[in-house]
Design goal:
The protein has 5 helices and 9 strands. The protein is α/β, with parallel strands linked by helices and 156 residues long. It has 2 domains: 92 residues, Spore Coat Polysaccharide Biosynthesis Protein SpsA, Chain A (Alpha-Beta Complex); 57 residues, no CATH class.
Length: 156
């Protein structure tokens, strides 16, 4: 396995999770859903989505929080030999070429230094504000101008 997507949920709108899964499934090798104790019908709905989109579902009996949910997913992805792990919230949206773009940015930046994290431009639904994309090298943030100088194919 090369790329594993992780979606953490708690009382989600199933339609948002389904939309995310539909966009991610063709782009990744595996998907892990970690549910932090959603109730009855939502839990059943997540089980159905896990089957439909061929996801590994981790069902927590209590809300263990985002950090533990992400740790659970990383342990699973690591056991499956994932090289890359992508993190999403239950309402995250992506483009059809999201993973390709992120991997291209990683590959371009890693030609010059060790890269530990690549983050996309984030568009907030509430007011369409954009957060700046970030690449980290050796624990330091690589700014937009530095990535462009490295001729990275990132759309920054």
């Amino acid at each position: 396995m090369t790329v594993c997507a992780v979606i953490v949920t708690y009382q989600p709108y199933l339609s948002e999770v389904q939309s995310s899964l539909a966009k991610l499934r063709p782009q990744v090798d595996a998907i892990v859903l970690v549910d932090n104790a959603s109730l009855g019908p939502l839990r059943e709905g997540l089980r159905g989505l896990a089957v439909e989109f061929r996801c590994h579902l981790i069902e927590n009996a209590a809300n263990l929080g985002i950090a533990e949910a992400l740790n659970q997913a990383v342990r699973y992805a690591s056991a499956q030999h994932a090289k890359f792990v992508l993190f999403f919230d239950q309402d995250s949206g992506t483009s059809p070429d999201f993973v390709t773009q992120q991997l291209a940015c990683y590959r371009a930046a890693s030609q010059h230094a060790q890269v530990g994290l690549v983050a996309p431009t984030i568009l907030l639904r509430s007011d369409h504000t954009r957060a700046r994309p970030v690449c980290l090298r050796n624990g330091r943030i690589i700014h937009r101008s530095d990535v462009r100088r490295a001729h990275a194919p990132c759309s920054l």
